[in-house]
Amino acid sequence: MDIFDIIGPVMVGPSSSHTAGAVRIGYISQKLMGEQIKEANILLYGSFLDTGKGHGTNKAIVAGLLGMQPDDMRIPHSMEIAEKKGIKVTFGKSTLKEAHPNSAQIILTGISGKQLEVVGESLGGSRINIAQIDGITTNFSGDYPTLVVHNQDQPGHVSEVTSMLAHKSVNIATMQLYRSNRGGDAVMVLECDQEIPREGIEWLKKVEGITKVTYLSQKGD
Q: Measured between alpha carbons, how far is residue 125 from residues 24, 46, 52, 117, 213 in Å?
């Protein structure tokens, strides 16, 4: 058992799930976005929706989107900071079905027009799970450099991705494969032990049959 399982994380706010976990969901979402955020539509579900306002969940998610960590003293002022940065933030109710009770559905638009939808779950003790990206199941913690590849369900794409990682001397910690149906849309989620060089990610984006590549780096901003 880790010491943080006993005493909880160092954080600003009253709840490790509703505050610290919410910050982490926002933080991982902005890292996945990979560029400055212009608009954020934050839809809350379950306990996040019912009791989140009192626990500061709204402010916590926005703080994470601004790149703050759970112990950042600026969290209570995140809405004002976002407004000063010109980031449009709206809140609403998520229509997710049978989701984790502490869930947020975050729809982001970047300054380039890029869009990203993330569903994050707060599991307690500041631990989170990224359950969906752009409507497709993912399930990863955000604790490792993570590569998410959307592709057509065709032979060869898995080997292309793993060969690129081997060529870049990147070891795979975990790998998950999902698909909507045979020959339809598919997604690979690879948590890695090392950072993936940008040239490898850019190469994947140009491979025929790969429709989107999203990368979560653990490097500091």
A: 11, 18, 16, 24, 30
pLDDT in tens, 54-74: 778 999 999 999 999 998 999
Distance CA 17, CA 104 (A): 12
Alpha carbon 46 to its chain's center: 19
φ, ψ dihedrals at 216, nearest 5°: -105, 110
Instruction: Tell me the C-alpha distance between 139 and 137, whole Å.
Output: 6
Length of the chain: 221
pTM for this one? Answer: 0.82
- Nearest residue to 186 (alpha-carbon basis) of 121, 125, 139, 136: 136
What torsion do the CA atoms of 85, 89, 13, 98 make, to the nearest 10 degrees? Answer: -150
CA 93 distance to own-chain centroid: 19
DSSP states of 108-154: EEETTS-EEEEEEEEEETTEEEEEEETTEEEEE-SSS-EEEEEEES-
Classify residue 32 by burial, with Cβ atoms within 10 Å: 0-12, 13-18, 19+: buried
